[in-house]
């Protein structure tokens, strides 16, 4: 068995338009094709709704909306990347495509540039990888939504799930 060097990092590369983003592979629970999304009342603007994944209710964020990118028509390559947060919660992120898994060397990863972005988006970008002629923006999954919006999303999802359970009884 070959161990990765301590400065290597494996990421799942996702696409939004022409831009590539990377998410630590250890945070990615799974990648699924789009499924029916139930709208979630009182959720932040970038939260498109809820999905039921094998009995678990998971909120889904539209990454294009979150990063202020123009909306596009759904494509065959669209995916929902299911992320496992530090607290065990699952959250889905709708992306244009999930393209590959890369092992990045420490020398390919640098700090995120100090850009004139809103604080919420700036916090979501933890580093930038430079491989050949590609720039891959490495995301901090815990900061994809600001903590207050993330908490609001999970509360709304719990209320929605409780309401459905009450209707079934």
Protein topology:
Layout: E1 9-16, E2 19-24, E3 28-32, E4 47-53, E5 56-62, H1 63-66, E6 79-84, E7 90-95, E8 97-104, E9 109-111, H2 119-124, E10 125-131, E11 134-139, H3 147-168
Parallel strand pairs: 2-11, 5-7
Antiparallel strand pairs: 1-2, 1-8, 3-6, 4-5, 6-7, 9-10, 10-11
Structural account:
- With 169 residues, the protein is of the alpha+beta class.
- It has a single domain (9-168), classed as CheA-289, Domain 4 (OB fold (Dihydrolipoamide Acetyltransferase, E2P)), CATH 2.40.50.
- Helices cover 19% and strands 41% of the residues.
- The chain contains 3 helices and 11 strands.
- The protein has helices spanning 63-66, 119-124, 147-168; strands spanning 9-16, 19-24, 28-32, 47-53, 56-62, 79-84, 90-95, 97-104, 109-111, 125-131, 134-139.
- A 6-stranded mixed beta sheet has the order 8-1-2-11-10-9. Strands 3-6-7-5-4 form a 5-stranded mixed beta sheet.
- The protein is globular and about 50 Å long.
- The N and C termini lie far apart (52 Å).
- The mean pLDDT is 84.
What do we call the CATH homologous superfamily? CheA-289, Domain 4
Name the CATH architecture: Beta Barrel
- Unreliable spans are none
What order do the strands of the largest sheet run in, or round the barrel if closed? 8-1-2-11-10-9
Could you give the distance between the termini? 52 Å
Total helical elements: 3
CATH class: Mainly Beta
**Which band does the percent of strand residues land in?**
35-45%
Helix content: 10-25%
Radius of gyration: 17 Å
> Largest beta sheet, briefly?
6 strands, mixed
Find the count of extended strands (DSSP E, 2+ residues). 11
Structural class by helix and strand composition: alpha+beta
């Amino acid at each position: 068995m070959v161990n990765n060097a301590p400065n290597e990092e494996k990421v799942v590369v996702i696409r939004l338009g022409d831009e590539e983003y990377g998410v630590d592979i250890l945070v990615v629970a799974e990648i699924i094709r789009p499924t029916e999304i139930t709208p979630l009342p009182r959720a932040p603007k970038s939260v498109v709704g809820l999905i039921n994944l094998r009995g678990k209710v998971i909120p889904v964020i539209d990454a294009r909306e979150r990063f202020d990118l123009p909306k596009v028509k759904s494509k065959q390559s669209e995916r929902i990347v299911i992320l496992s947060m530090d607290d065990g919660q699952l959250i889905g992120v709708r992306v244009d495509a999930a393209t590959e898994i890369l092992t990045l060397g420490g020398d390919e990863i640098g700090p995120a540039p100090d850009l004139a972005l809103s604080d919420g988006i700036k916090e979501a970008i933890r580093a930038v990888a430079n491989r050949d002629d590609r720039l891959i923006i490495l995301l901090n999954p815990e900061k994809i939504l600001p903590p207050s919006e993330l908490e609001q999303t999970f509360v709304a999802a719990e209320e929605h799930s409780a309401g459905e359970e009450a209707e079934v009884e």
